[in-house]
Amino acid sequence: MLWIIFMLLLFISSMEMLTQNRWKKQVSAGLLENCTGCILCSEDNGCITCHQRLFLLIWRDGIRQYGMCVHTCPPGYFGVRGLEVNRCTKCRSPSCESCFSRDFCMKCKDKFYLHKGQCFRQCPPSTAAQPDTRECQETCELGPWSQWSTCTHEGRTCGCKWGVETRVREVLGAAREEGATCPALLETRKCRMRKHCPGEKTEPKNKGKKRQKKPKTEPQTGT
Questions:
Q1: By C-alpha distance, which of 152, 187, 150 is closest to 169?
Q2: DSSP notation for 135-167
């Protein structure tokens, strides 16, 4: 009876060891996949240090964190090279797809526009959204229109029937930034001029025309 119990315990112990060996093989296989490019690697946390040219990417899953060695950092991260380890650091803004530093974005995710290193769902005032580049471009802040100028034609203010008058407006100093798009700063329109200049002698319309004499009709004499 004791012999049967002993054999049963030995069988159970063998099955537990076999299960543990299988689990260790599975962990080792997954570890080798996640430890590509690693110098030091942990069964629980993946890569700890990477080869010189690679970046260490660390992400969290609940309370656990995992490490992986990558050639380039994924979207939402930027690479920082150090003396001991190169790291992929996460951009601070969740709407940033790629960044130069933690707080300076270079490209925003869809439905966001880039302006001065920040991502906006709607462009701030004095800027206009550019759908092609996904950026907010500076626009001009303009002053008021001036009064219309004197109506002139080739430098003359009279002596012609029609001329042109203009008005202008200026860009305010605070909005003069490189790359700003400005609307028209000058407008022209057709205007009516004084046909005769002051002091100019006017000739009568019928001057120079000879009056046509009416032909004389001779009285008819009866026969």
A1: 187
A2: EEEEB--B---------BBTTBSBSSSEEEEEE
Structure tokens at 146: 């001036």
Of 60-64, 114-118, 163-167, 197-201, the one with minimum mean pLDDT is 197-201
Highest mean pLDDT among 105-109, 190-194, 202-206: 105-109
Q: Edge-to-edge strand order for the sheet containing 46-50? A: 38-42, 46-50, 64-70, 55-61, 87-90, 77-80
CA 164/CA 157 separation, integer angstroms: 10
By CB atoms closer than 10 A (0-12, 13-18, 19+), residue 169 is middle
Average pLDDT value for residue range 58-71: 85
Mean of per-residue pLDDT scores for the chain: 77
- Tokens representing residue 115 in the block: 């302006």
Other Cβ atoms closer than 10 A to 182: 14
Positive or negative CA dihedral for 151, 154, 159, 164? negative
For residues 75 and 87, what is the distance between their CA atoms, to the nearest angstrom? 14
* Confidence bin at 65 (pLDDT 50/70/90): confident
Alpha carbon distance 119, 107 (integer Å): 8
Residue in this structure with the two tokens 């030995």, named with its chain if needed: 10
Running DSSP on this structure, what letter comes out for residue 68? E
Rounded CA-CA distance 167/151 in Å is 11
pTM above 0.85, yes or no: no
